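User: As part of a screening pipeline, I want to sanity-check one entry by hand. Below is the sequence and the SMILES for zinc ion. Please return the complex as structure tokens so I can compare it with the automated output.
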Amino acid sequence: MNEKVKNIIAASGQLIPLNWLTTKNQPPFLPFYHIVSDSHPDYISFYSIRNPKLFEKELDFLLKHFNAVDLDTLLQQPKQNDMHLTFDDGLTECISTIAPMLKRKGIPATFFVSPDFIDNKALFHRFKRAILEKKGIIKPGGKRFNYRQVNELDQIALQHQIDFTSYKPYLTSEQLQQLHNMGFNIGAHSMYHPEMWLMNENEQFEQIANSMKWISDRFNPKIKAFSFPFTDQGIQPSVFEKIINENIADITFGTAGLKHDIAKNHFQRVPIERKEFWSIKKNVHFEYFYYFVRSLLKKNNVTR
Ligand SMILES: [Zn+2]
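Assistant: Here is the complex for your manual check:
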């Protein structure tokens, strides 16, 4: 669906009180973010960024409308007005800005990280592309570069004397341990954030199993959680079955918005940081009004 149509749905949705749009059989509300910052780092080009003040206001809005629950509750007895906050990619702002604010407000949350990036051992290929775009070397809207083409990005950087290792966007091992010690859940987000739809099932499963093992070895979490990088579109039921049967993860997450999912223990989350900035109210009303529209068409289930 294009942005214009989404904006029309969001505008209509905002005219309707939220309690008119909520019904018992809806899934819990699962917003996800990446970063909260006063500045806009060069490596982020594909989503909008909240500053701490605005993020705090958004949390207050969410707390007014939803019950913040932990992963356990979400897995055992998910209710329509429950929410669980999650943060993807393991950026350093998770410990500097986000976690202290969540702690102060008593909000449970899960942080999903890609092991290859922890300690800034490597840089996400989309970040590399964004840096080159920001420097005017790659045209916006040009070639996207997937994970298999990361060498090409490295070559371009070399030619233009750009040192990717000077960027340190990620948490260190110690900081990740701190997040865990603060009582937050740490989950896995694949090894290096590939476009998993370009992988075969074995490769997909390896990304899930290896990153979950990395998390389990370090944190031994009570609830083992995984969030799919980018999207879970195209992930076959056999992969979800293998995750359950081999006890790889207890709960998994996608990014398809407010929807039920046919896969067991798999939940869909709502991306808040759209490329075009939307307020939290606009995001929430859009999701619930869109859910209502889809329910008329019986299209609120992700099928596989
Ligand atoms: Zn991600």
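Points to compare against the pipeline: Residues 201-219 form the longest helix (19 residues). The longest strand covers residues 109-113.
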